[in-house]
């Protein structure tokens, strides 16, 4: 399989980019090749004005099994026992997760199978997630002596501390219904409804002003790390600047005039 084949790309007429993990034999692991292709695809989505929403899906029974442990084990052959290689892979993975969060386009995970370790991190890094009722999630590093420290970053920013710690300390699988209860995913649906449910959500978001979505997504993640007073000061400034955009002027005018807005994405 060529490195580019591990990630399939499909752009719909309404601006939804579907990225499909396609390394089924390795359970869509975040190999060097997969991380490289994901990095390229997210960067392209961020800068391409035609792309309005990104959906991250997967072929096969596993959404993503996390890091490729065979690749990591092979790295131990180096004189430093793999330290430099491990640092490189963890940095590449962290950069992909951060790129998803900072991408100005909303990113939706479409989870049709098991998502474990860094695969669970990938789901948690997306802005929204829809899963099948049979999907399962875990951060199982403790089973093999490797605490899921980097998945912990994304997980702890999605679910309450005690729920995150339970997943991290036990390594046990949780169901899709439980994942929805604790906020790891938005909803669980029947397997034959997964793509339709995800694409309905994606198209609903894609119909909005892309510049407004970019402003809102960036502000959401920025204010979340601030103290309450600082967050309100920051959000008030964002709101003022947003009010001065062409799309806010158009949207408010359309509401007052009882017509559909025509977005200029600016």
Q: Strand order, biggest sheet?
A: 1-2-3-5-7-10
The CATH superfamily of the largest domain turns out to be: 2-enoyl-CoA Hydratase, Chain A, domain 1
Report the principal-axis shape. Answer: globular
Helix content: 40-55%
Fraction of residues in β-strands: 15-25%
The low-confidence runs, each spanning 5 or more residues with pLDDT under 50, are none
Total number of helical segments?
Answer: 11
Q: How many separate structural domains?
A: 2
The total count of strands amounts to: 10
CATH architecture identity of the largest domain: Alpha-Beta Complex
Q: Please outline the major beta sheet.
A: 6 strands, mixed
End-to-end separation in angstroms reads: 41 Å
GO biological process, one term: fatty acid metabolic process
GO molecular function: hydro-lyase activity
Family: Belongs to the enoyl-CoA hydratase/isomerase family.
Function: May play a role in fatty acid biosynthesis and insulin sensitivity.
In brief, what are we looking at here?
The protein is 48% helix and 15% strand. With 266 residues, the protein is α/β, with parallel strands linked by helices.
């Amino acid at each position: 399989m060529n490195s580019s084949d591990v990630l399939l790309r499909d752009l719909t007429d309404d601006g939804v980019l579907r990225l499909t993990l396609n390394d089924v034999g390795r359970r869509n692991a975040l190999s060097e090749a997969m991380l490289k292709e994901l990095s390229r695809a997210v960067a392209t989505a961020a800068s391409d004005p035609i792309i309005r929403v990104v959906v991250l899906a997967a072929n096969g029974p596993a959404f993503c099994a996390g890091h490729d442990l065979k690749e990591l084990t092979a790295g131990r052959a180096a004189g430093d026992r793999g330290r430099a290689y491990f640092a490189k892979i963890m940095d590449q993975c962290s950069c992909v997760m951060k790129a998803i969060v900072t991408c100005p386009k909303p990113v939706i995970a479409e989870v049709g199978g098991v998502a474990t370790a860094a695969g669970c991190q990938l789901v948690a890094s997306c802005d929204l997630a829809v899963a099948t009722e049979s999907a399962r999630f875990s951060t199982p590093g403790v089973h093999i002596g490797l605490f899921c420290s980097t998945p912990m970053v994304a997980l702890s920013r999605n679910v309450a501390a005690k729920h995150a710690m339970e997943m991290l300390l036990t390594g046990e699988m949780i169901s899709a219904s439980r994942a929805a209860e604790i906020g790891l995913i938005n909803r669980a649906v029947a397997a034959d409804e997964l793509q339709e449910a995800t694409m309905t959500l994606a198209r609903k978001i894609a119909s909005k002003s892309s510049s407004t979505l970019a402003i809102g997504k960036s502000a959401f993640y920025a204010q979340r790390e601030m103290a309450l007073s600082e967050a309100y000061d920051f959000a008030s400034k964002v709101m003022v600047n947003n009010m001065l955009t062409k799309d806010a002027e158009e949207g408010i005018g359309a509401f007052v005039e009882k017509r559909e807005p025509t977005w200029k994405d600016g």
